[in-house]
């Protein structure tokens, strides 16, 4: 799920990503991983964005992986074969703090072969840039601020100031998910409940009904519905970005899924190449 969120944010707000990583708001377009595939490629972790003279390769990681250095070399070779005239910059971005030495590896070396890439550990980054760009707000909770609750409150205030409702809800949902890496879910709900759930008519109805039957029960049901709404927001945005507007019947089928199946669908989306794959997923996942 975290891979999907990061991939979606990087591709949707690529100019903000470029401003952060490259120091200038370069317009970037998505490159399909299949364009580099000689053999099967880990498309779930691979983010490729291109400009006129640049290929930007990003990988977001929640856990250390000893295979990263060789994989970066492998992807660089594939990218150079496909785009020989482009400069290639590679970033491995670690999301969650760890004491593992693997997150400090930024080169591959074997006999006479040497390859270097760039590594960013978000917990070592200053918060300023992340609060400056809309597309970076969900990542801000992962940077090196000691008081995460206060930071999340600041992020929530900035999300409130986003004028476009669709963007506001999307950034809220993404922040809700990524905050789960560093904060207890109850704390996230207390701070982001208004940002994620108040827009949900269903949530409000459940909450009102719950107040009649018992305030605690109603809040629990409302929080579940809010969690589902956050998942739906991300999933529908991912599918719309990949395939354009979906048929209304497909929207309805997805909205009827329960949280465990929504989480399963979120993981499967990046392997889909057409709407037919989504139909096939529904037929197999009974």
UniProtKB/TrEMBL annotation:
InterPro entries, sorted: DUF4351 (IPR025587), RpnA (IPR010106)
TM spans (from-to): none
Domain (DUF4351): residue spans on this chain: 225-282
Pfam families (UniProt xref): DUF4351 (PF14261)
Protein name as catalogued: Rpn family recombination-promoting nuclease/putative transposase
Organism for this UniProt entry: Pseudanabaena cinerea FACHB-1277
